[in-house]
Specification:
Elements (H helix, E strand, L loop, with lengths): L4 H11 L6 H26 L7 H27 L7
Length: 88
């Protein structure tokens, strides 16, 4: 029987040595407003898990949902106007 432990160790160590490329970091930066808005929405939802939502909680959730929608809209609009490489 052939052991695969040695092969697995080589694959695991090689896959952990990579860092994100500049393009990947730029993509994360472009999506950061959406990520922050989604985190705020999640925070608002978490606050209402163990108790019924009151009027203030409903407003907080509605505002957070609106921020997520606005961030998605802005990200989509920016993606349509940016050109990456090629002739303009």
């Amino acid at each position: 029987m052939k052991s695969i432990i040695a092969l697995q160790a080589l694959v695991t160590t090689a896959s952990l040595d990579f860092e994100p490329t500049g393009a990947e970091l730029e993509a994360i930066d472009r999506e950061m407003p959406l990520i922050r808005a989604e985190v705020a929405l999640l925070d608002a939802q978490i606050m209402t898990i163990d108790r019924p939502a009151n009027e203030l909680d409903e407003r907080r959730m509605r505002r957070a949902r609106n921020r997520v929608l606005a961030a998605r809209r802005d990200l989509t609009n920016r993606a349509g106007t940016e050109h990456t490489g090629g002739a303009a």
